[in-house]
Write a structure and sequence with these properties.
- The complex is a heterodimer of chains A (243) and B (423).
- Chain A is an alpha/beta fold and 243 residues long.
- Chain A has a single domain, classed as Rossmann fold (3-Layer(aba) Sandwich).
- Chain A contains 7 helices and 12 strands.
- In chain A, strands 2-1-3-4-12-11 form a 6-stranded mixed sheet, sandwiched between helices. In chain A, strands 5, 6, 7, 8, 9 and 10 form a 6-stranded mixed sheet that branches.
- The longest helix of chain A is centred in the last third of the chain and has 24 residues.
- The relative contact order of chain A is 0.15.
- By secondary structure, chain B is α/β, with parallel strands linked by helices.
- In chain B, the strands form 2 sheets. Chain B has a 9-stranded mixed sheet, with helices on both faces. In chain B, strands 10-11-15-12-13-14 form a 6-stranded mixed sheet.
- In chain B, 56% of the residues are buried.
- The chains are: A alpha/beta (243), B alpha/beta (423).
- At the A-B interface, helix 1, strand 7, strand 8 and helix 7 of A face helix 7 and helix 14 of B.
Chain lengths: 243, 423
């Protein structure tokens, strides 16, 4: 039976750099292909916020967007807490993750308080890494993508990483991302969910389960995984050949 | 090494690399090794000075248009071929144009310069004028963030000995212009009417604003782009209105033309010859790979560059109908195609063939967009043969959406070997 799902996409103009706001579309398409309806609501401030959200997504941004985005998010903290208490699932990329964490230390050493959704702390004093990465995720599945981020993010003790990078770049932590019940975060770029449809399916499966539903996979999901597996294999091949 | 033997060796290298087929930046690299100051030696004393053209996109087209317009006014121009915008590319162009004694016979140098290398090139050759096309989200894998490009362009602009010309439809360039003007630089600009800006679905696809910008720059614009439709543009210059025919359709080409015209007007220091401008613009061919149509075994292939999100978006915005046969070719030259997910594909309702090492990433993207695609043929030569056959069977032109590296490869595979100044 068709169900309606609401995906809240937070500050897509400020935090949507380089395809990083696409998580909402990927999750919506994954749901729609299972026969459900999914609407994406762009959230620029409290006035845009629906009373409940099944999934909340946030993307990454450039340095100049850090202060204005942090300011905008302050006005949304109460909304976020309400969504969190009502069981929303959170998907965050790059700077959006860091701003929804507990705190973020800027390159200049200033501390920006986070929204407190993700149990993590970011530190932008470390340098930038830009390049393809591969590794195994928390279920041992081959996963891959592209990271273009500054700094590091430290997880609190009660949550685990999304994946472990194989052949992590020098000075870059092996542990990447965050995975916990209702929480998903990564520094992999925009189409992290697209290149790793197993993550999109995990999230959608959890969302459906919260309504007592099972995922209904069809040809679309098979085709997407097949194409994404070929894309990931090429990334793995490129990384292997560079060693 | 002495000037004469250096140029003899560099020209010999150029001859040998051209015998091998295609062009190369190698002779320029060798010349720079032998004579590190060769750019200032050869181009530093031209009577009308040096113009640098930089920005995220439109550098090649603007430079080509500018050179053409100056020549139409009787000015002898030295310029670098499209894409040859790194120091070695510029030096290679010098190898081709200079005499064996290292003399370049020209009134002015109009040079496309890569934004990341602009400072290094300015160290070697101080620009009189700096023309900035735009600041768009581009090559984040290389630049990190667009803010870094803003700083590069601002630092370049501050080094212009005479003045800076910016595209004032780009708010970041207005901010940049105001910043360097506050430091005492002369800043000129071209602007767009609201009608012209609205002629493309996504406008000029400028990057988000990074710095505080005034509403507009003080003074009058050199050129105003009044309207843009397909390959036609109307501009206002020096109190006159001029209809122009562009080498390819799209607002971005109209902006490039306005910038080129504005620069020519200010550098000449006298009213432009409207007939000469009209004739030069209408006879200009597209810069290779940018709206160019090539032929391969009887099949016509229209090349559309997707160097980055803005370049792809402005070209899609310029499409007047759904392309019938679509070929997408993208490889390692686009290390991170994440920006694809920000593209509005507009009239593109299918893709026939996907090619290159990033073809499968495109396939995933199209799946999520719900746009059907045909074959994935990773090898470019095989794909060229396949799309060529399809084009002949269907009696249509191939709309090839390609990144820079695939564009170079496809041109070479199709027998177009005159490229020079390759990166």
């Amino acid at each position: 039976m068709t169900q309606w799902f609401t995906i809240a996409r937070v500050l897509p103009e400020r935090l949507g750099l380089n395809g990083s706001s696409a998580s909402a579309e990927i999750l919506a398409m994954t749901l729609r292909q299972m026969g459900h309806e999914a609407s994406i609501v762009d959230i620029h401030g409290p006035a845009d916020a629906p009373s409940t959200a099944d999934i909340v997504t946030i993307g990454s941004g450039s340095t100049s967007q850090l202060a204005p985005a942090a300011t905008d998010l302050i006005a949304l903290v109460r909304t976020f807490q309400h969504w969190k208490n009502s069981g929303a699932h959170w998907v965050a990329i790059g700077m959006g993750w860091d701003l929804l964490g507990e705190s973020l230390m800027t390159a200049e050493g200033d501390t920006v308080p986070g929204a407190g959704i993700f149990p993590s702390r970011a530190d932008y004093r470390a340098g930038r890494f830009s390049g393809e990465v591969r590794g195994s995720d928390f279920k041992g599945r081959e996963s891959a993508g592209y990271i273009n981020q500054v700094g590091t993010t430290e997880l609190k003790e009660d949550v685990g990483p999304l994946m472990t990078l194989e052949g992590a770049p020098e000075g870059w932590p092996e542990q990447e991302g965050l995975r916990a019940p209702q929480l998903f975060a990564t520094r992999l770029g925009g189409p992290a969910l697209a290149l790793n449809p197993h993550w999109a399916l995990d999230i959608v499966t959890d969302v459906l389960a919260s309504r007592g539903l099972q995922p209904q996979l069809n040809d679309f999901h098979t085709r997407v995984e097949s194409a994404a597996a070929r894309a990931r294999a090429l990334i793995v091949g490129r990384l292997s050949s560079r060693r | 090494m002495g000037k004469f033997p250096s140029f003899v060796i560099a020209k010999l290298l150029r001859f040998l690399t051209r015998l091998r087929g295609g062009g190369s930046a190698f002779p320029g690299l060798a010349l720079l090794r032998m004579r590190p100051d060769v750019l200032s030696e050869t181009l530093g004393a031209l009577p009308r000075g040096t113009v640098f053209v930089s920005g995220s996109n439109g550098k090649s087209t603007t430079t080509t248009m500018m050179a053409s317009l100056m020549r139409a006014h009787g000015v002898s121009v030295f310029t670098n071929p499209a894409g040859g915008n790194l120091p070695q590319g510029l030096a290679s162009a010098v190898v081709g144009a200079a005499s064996l004694t290292g003399r370049v016979s020209a009134d002015i140098a109009v040079l496309e310069v890569d934004e990341a290398y602009a400072g290094m090139i300015a160290d070697a050759l101080a620009p009189d004028w700096v023309v900035l096309t735009n600041l768009q989200v581009d090559q984040l894998n290389r630049f990190g963030e667009p803010e870094n490009v803003y700083r590069m362009l601002r630092d370049l602009a501050a080094r212009a000995r005479v003045g800076v010309i910016v595209n004032a439809a780009d708010a970041n360039l207005v901010a940049l212009g105001a910043e360097v003007a506050a430091q005492g630089s002369r800043v000129e600009f071209i602007d767009l009417s609201s009608d012209a800006l609205a002629s493309a679905a996504h406008g000029v696809v400028a990057a988000p604003l990074f710095a505080e910008a005034p509403e507009r720059l003080p003074g009058d614009s050199l050129v105003t782009l009044v309207s843009s439709e397909g390959q036609r543009a109307t501009v206002g210059v020096g109190g006159s209105t001029l209809e122009l025919e562009l080498p390819a359709p799209g607002l971005h080409y109209a902006v490039d033309a306005a910038l080129a015209l504005g620069c020519v007007a200010v550098v000449l220091g006298k009213p432009v010859d409207l007939d000469a401008v009209r004739t030069a613009m209408s006879s200009g061919a597209p810069v290779y790979g940018r709206g160019e149509v090539i032929t391969h075994k009887g099949a016509q292939i229209a090349l559309t560059m997707m160097k980055n999100l803005p370049s792809l978006q402005v070209n899609i915005d310029a499409m007047s109908h759904s392309p019938e046969l679509v070929w997408v070719a993208v490889d390692e030259g686009t290390p991170d195609p994440s920006w694809l997910y920000d593209v509005d594909l507009g009239p593109i309702d299918h893709v026939d063939v996907l090619t290159g090492t990033k073809a499968w990433q495109w396939a995933v993207f199209l799946e999520y967009r719900g746009i059907p695609y045909g074959q994935v043929i990773e090898d470019s030569a095989e794909a060229l043969a396949a799309v060529g056959s399809m084009a002949l069977e269907r009696g249509v032109t191939v709309s090839a959406i390609v990144n820079y590296e695939q564009m170079m490869l496809i041109r070479r595979l199709a027998g177009y070997k005159e490229l020079e100044g390759a990166r």
